[in-house]
Amino acid sequence: MSVAALALVLAFAAPAGARAQSVALIVNGEPITNLDIAQRTKLMTLITRKTLSRQETIQELIDDKVKIKEAKKYSINLSASDVDSAYANMAARMRLSADQLSKMLEAQGIRPEAMKQRLKAETAWSALVRGRFQQSLLVGEKDVHSVIGSEGEAKEGESFEYRLRPVVLFIPQGSSVEQRRKEAETLRARVQSCEDAVSIFRSLRNGAIRDQITKTSADLPGNLREVMDKTPVGHMTAPEVTKQGIEMVVLCSRQATTADTPAKRAARDKLYAQKYEAKSKSYLQEIRKGAMIEYR
């Protein structure tokens, strides 16, 4: 048998895993394997509920390589621990631990590393675009007003600044949740000021009062904003059962502020997102022209 024929036989005899690891293309000296393509396809199907074509997936992976290389030019180089932290934060937003997110991905045949690679590219790219084009991404008041209009502004009303102190009653093992809720209601009735709450809850064995936090109307979701507006200053919100225990919030003060109303915040965020997307797209198109791409 000739050497060429032997090589051909060995190629076809190679296990599927080896073929999957084969290099499909090289971008700026870095390989993209068939496994990378297969994993990204599965990941995007999970995220978007749509199946990308092989070429669309390849384009995504090329973009990632280009984004990471460009970010490195400006000293934005995420370490493994940075990526792990971003991964854990993403899991937390989904109310999962990093391990739980990994198990969820693996159940779909997706390696956690596939998600981390995408996350690394997007995190580095976002920092680069926001940093380099900070001034051009700013949204002016005139633009905000043009979006919401005078009628929308009138309907929105004024914005408030709330000073709050969260409180929690822990539920010891074997204790009744309902009993603790009743205790919370009793304590709630005693509170007539922020000082009362501090005095009462600091002395509790199975309770705690958190440090004061400040939020504006635009920071709070609509349902919580409505609760804060209806709660008298110095009083507490109704008890709520959470993973921490029985939680309530003391409203220490509520004052009108010139900070963004929810409508203004939403308009500002929308305009910023539009500017960011436009700048991101044009910047990526520009640097992709200089990418060295070699298909195998």
Number of helices: 12
What is the percentage of strand-forming residues? 5-15%
Let me know the number of strands: 8
Helix content: 55-70%
Structural class given helices, strands, pairing?
alpha+beta
By CATH, the architecture of the largest domain is named Orthogonal Bundle
Q: Would you state the CATH class of the largest domain?
A: Mainly Alpha
> How many whole angstroms does the radius of gyration measure?
27 Å
Largest sheet entry? 5 strands, antiparallel
Count up the domains.
Answer: 2
Low-pLDDT stretches are 1-19, 150-155
Q: What can you see in these coordinates?
A:
With 296 residues, the protein is an alpha+beta fold. The protein folds into two domains: 14-135 and 275-295, Triger factor/SurA peptide-binding fold (Orthogonal Bundle), CATH 1.10.4030.10; 158-257, Roll (Chitinase A, domain 3). The protein is built from twelve helices and eight strands. The chain has helices spanning 3-13, 16-20, 34-48, 54-73, 80-93, 98-107, 112-132, 141-156, 177-190, 194-202, 222-230, 262-288, and strands at residues 23-27, 30-33, 159-169, 207-209, 213-216, 240-241, 246-257, 293-295. The strands form two sheets. Strands 3, 4, 5, 6 and 7 form a five-stranded antiparallel sheet that branches. It has a three-stranded antiparallel sheet with strand order 2-1-8. The radius of gyration is 27 Å and the shape is globular. The two termini are 27 Å apart. The relative contact order is 0.12.
